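Data availability (excerpt). The following record was deposited with the supplementary files.
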Amino acid sequence: MTSFGEVGDSFDPACHDALTHHVAPEADGFVCSAVLRPGYRLGENLLRPATVEVTGSAQPTRSAPAPGCGGRGSSARPVGPRLPLGRS
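Predicted structure:
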């Protein structure tokens, strides 16, 4: 098991969970400005995303995912069929 998440890492929503966003108009992209809780990987599998604060521009921009964070396109939240909600 390896931990990840460092101040200065490019923000990647596939392997980072952002709790706050600080605006820096001169920024080109989003950067992790504080790591509140490290993330963990087991081999290429993401076990837990890193919880971070992000600094960047006011408007989100599309960026390529950082290599190696989640591995094989995995994410912290599994994708699957939605279950119906029952009413009581």
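Summary of structural features: The longest strand covers residues 16-23.
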